[in-house]
Amino acid sequence: MTRNIIAILRGITPSEAVAAVDVLIDAGITNIEVPLNSPDPFGSIKAMVDAFGDQALIGAGTVLSVEDVNRVDQAGGKLIVSPNVDPRVIVATKTAGLQSWPGVMTPTECFTALKNGADGLKIFPGSLLGPDGLKAIRAVLPQGTQVYAVGGAGPDNFADWFAASADGFGIGSALYKPGMSTADIAARAKDIVAAYDGAK
């Protein structure tokens, strides 16, 4: 069973990349994001795709330019996550046949993202909007819009977010911090998946 969890591996290096994705997939997390402010992110993405491209959706976060989209595409990544709504980035992502998940906070940003072809919306930072804010915005969103909460969403409040209609989550430092051992990543991933399944 695959879950609507995007693992945000900020700070990961190419030498750690394959082992980390291996334990994440094993735990049931198959959406992987390497933020572009990590060391050699394109090298990490390529290593992950070469090893697990058929088992996981792998791509980049903190994608701010069309050039970045093209480089992720060249590395074999299929997922583009941004902290903001930039129509040029969304259009370039969809033109390349990749998934687009821009960061949104307001109804205006939600509709701008959807109008330009976004596959889903990333509420960021989730802690600012909160479950109540999502509930209010959900009332006006087109039916079926996928909304993930990122930043301020985790095992402690998965149930609150689900109750407010969140479809999934992006999980960063609760799952991975630079220098963490593979065993630690595996243990955290297992706990997060158990909390997700319990809240669902």
UniProtKB/TrEMBL annotation:
Pathway recorded for this protein: Carbohydrate acid metabolism
Keyword annotations: Carbohydrate metabolism, Lyase
InterPro entries with a match to the protein in the record: Aldlse_KDPG_KHG (IPR000887), Aldolase_TIM (IPR013785)
UniProt key word Lipid biosynthesis: no
Keyword Nucleotide-binding: no
Domain of life the protein comes from: Bacteria
Subunit structure: Homotrimer.
Family, similarity comment: Belongs to the KHG/KDPG aldolase family.
Protein name: 2-dehydro-3-deoxy-6-phosphogalactonate aldolase
Taxonomic source organism: Octadecabacter dasysiphoniae
